[in-house]
Amino acid sequence: MIVERRTFLSGILATGLFAPAIAQTPPTPDGPFTLADLPYAFNALEPVIDARTMEIHHGRHHRAYVDNLNRAIQATPALQGQTLEQLMARAGSYPVTVRNNGGGHWNHTFFWKTMTAPDLGGAPAPMLAAAIDEAFGSLDGLKAAVASSGAARFGSGWVWLIMGPDGRLAVTSTPNQDNPLMDVAEVKGVPLFGNDVWEHAYYLNYQNRRSDYLTAWWRVVDWRRVSERHEQAVAIIR
Ligand SMILES: [Fe+2]
Is the dihedral of CA 73, 77, 83, 88 positive or negative? Predict the structure, then answer.
């Protein structure tokens, strides 16, 4: 009986149907896009975001977006030679894999650069602080809007602070890996910061407590960087 079972199993395995998934994965393309190292150590954001979460988030999730985007680009000559921003601007016209993985690459690259070690990010520069007061009443008003928008995002997505074409700030949310630069975004604008509300961004530390993660996240926001982005966005519309 045991021999028969072994024969059966070896017969099944010989079909190749149960070969390890890795053998089915096409080789990782070299480009055109690449995964940059994080601008800080994996543990730099602790205790707000733990090192293991950062390691998996950057090394596996972000890497997968880059690899899958590269595969899509290499398979579609019409997409070659475009910058990531150009791909975002026409995401609605491209295969959904470009929208999802291109968005994933842009969003995460932007996200890493939005953060710094806890309590070292300073405060909004005066011009940004004035724009926040005008749109939300106060910095606490902005935080409340982000908490509300982040909690309301069903499933996976992002919550953003953007500057619209009129120079006014707004908090928005996008599903999946969409972002406010995409032609498909309900509300478009220049992103000043984005927070990742996919469970992979916080689950090890916060489990299902997304609101706790959203509250803690303010400690790692690099306001100097966000203020620079605002200054550049204002210069463009002036
Ligand atoms: Fe993510």
Answer: negative
Q: pLDDT tens, 114-162? A: 999 999 999 999 999 999 999 999 999 999 999 999 899 988 999 999 9
Query: What own/partner pairs with CB < 8 Å and gap ≥ 24 does 14-23 have?
Result: none
Q: Does the 126-237 domain belong in CATH 3.55.40.20?
A: yes
Domains of the chain: which residue ranges? 5-112, 126-237
Residue 115's beta-bridge partner residues?
221
**What is this structure's pTM?**
0.88
Mean pLDDT (whole number) for 99-107 = 98
Q: What's the gap in Å between 131 CA and the centre of ligand 1? A: 28
- The Å distance, Cα 200 to ligand 1 centre, comes to 6
52-81 residue pLDDT tens: 999 999 999 999 999 999 999 999 988 999
Alpha carbons 70 and 142: distance in angstroms, whole number: 36
Q: Give me ligand 1 centre to Cα 189, in Å.
A: 21
Crossing angle of helices 63-75 and 96-112, rounded to 10°: 140
CA 156–ligand 1 middle distance (angstroms): 9
The CATH architecture of the domain made up of 5-112 is: Orthogonal Bundle (1.10)
> Ligand 1 centroid vs 54 CA: distance in angstroms?
10
Distance between Cα 104 and ligand 1 center (Å): 7
Tell me how far the alpha carbon of residue 10 lies from the centroid of ligand 1, in angstroms: 40
Centre of ligand 1 to C-alpha 112, Å, is 10
Say yes or no: do domains 5-112 and 126-237 share a fold. no
